[in-house]
Amino acid sequence: MRLSRSASLLAAATLLAATATGCSGATRNTDGSTDAAAYQVTPDTPAAKGTIPSFTWSLYAEPQTLDYAVAYDYPPNTVLANVCEQLFRVTPDLKIAPGLAVKSANPDPLTWVYTLREGVKFHDGATMTADDVVASLRRHLDPATGSSWGSAFKNVDSIEKTGPLEVTIHLTKPDVLLNELLAASPGTVESAAFLARAGKDYGSPQGGVDCTGPYAVDTWSQGDSLTLKKNPAYWDTSLTPKADSVKFVFIQDPAARANAFLAGSVDGGYLVPSASLAQLRASDRGTVHFGPNTAAAGLAVLDLRGTLGDLKVRQALSKALDRAAIVKAAAAGVGTPAKAPAAQAAWGVAPDRTAGYFAALPEPVYDLAGAKKLVQEAGATGRKVVMATSSLAPEISVVANAVQSAGKQIGLDVELKPVAPDAYTALFVDPAARAGIDLVVTNGYDNTPDPLEFYQSLHTGDFGNYGNWSNPAYDALFDRAIAAADPATRADLTAELQQIAVNELPSIPLYEAPYSLFLNKRITGAPTGIAQLYYPWAATIGAAN
Which pTM was predicted? Predict the structure, then answer.
């Protein structure tokens, strides 16, 4: 579930791996139990040894649409990564590589020029041109599209064709993030002719999509499954699919997903239910793999006019959280307490500097006495904090109960408000849905290897700034960072933004956990990490033997 906007792709898988020991799969203790803390982060699984007719994959929910402009969650992007492609590509080791554009140029701070790949075919056989790219990108600027990525284009003045295979974007102010985000949903290319024909039905089971990826949509049985078929004319021969078809099945119940893995009715899936991690790691039916993850769990403050408007109360709540216990209960012990709102793995733009940036941050402290004192100093003893909870994922309830318990111990009255799964998701897209709620669990991730993308969500007025937090110094610093073409300079400025966020706590960091993947014994080859949201991962899966 995507519970907040952002996302970064790292070259810092080693940062997570350095905090872990052991190897992929469970470590057996003498009493037969497993050691959840023993895990290793790797970007790939062993390469496939041959082709297969098909495989079955689990999604925890059915995609509401396959329209790339509103693809803003794990299920749709997991499918679209194999069907539609972007101007750039995020690789399994979390770097940005050429995709449908072979190169970009930045002749001046307000201009980006993209040279497109020749000979790329859409699934219907038509050849991709600059007209298709312009039509695809301009959809994000059209209010009628309702793009979830509209804010990525906030500094765009125009998008125009400047050659048969050349597109130029003119900006109103420098914006390095836009160029990077063209490796994610904002950079998706669809057939202009197909967009015109499909109209309002585009991306639906009836309207479909017509992209350039290694797979095309074959059938979509609503409420049950979605099947992809191999694209025989795919341009990238290094990623020719090893399976002729892929069937996605929608299994909402976490226990039922785990049982499907164990029974062999499903061959694999990302985002393994944490409550079943130990069982699956101990099973001989397959292997749980851990990969690079740019996500970090946190508590987003939705109302700064209430009890949590006082910084001392936010600091108190942070001090009152036993993060080690939360990692054990919510993530089966596979993870580490978070020092900042954005994960360390989100710092792919400056992997050599990341350790220093995080070393400068204070360690999260569990201090009930100090937290209670802060609540008293704020005059907040007995005041209410309303926190949303939901059955959408077990982790949400675990964290909510931990926050309620912590609040009680330091003098805060934390009331848990149950929210239906669909309504919980609405908290992150509909400001009206947040009325009367102070706090919510988020799982924010970066789509690019640049943590500035995450910290953009705390800029005044940004779509992802759920609590409307505003800090003029932060905004001014962000404006400098987004204009910094040099990655090292941008990283230093982002580290300053991170420090402000840690000091002010508009979002309270909880924990970081690696990405998870289950593969049964018959298949292998899948990348393990969050890059799967934009990399054609299904094309790499084939026979294990």
Answer: 0.88
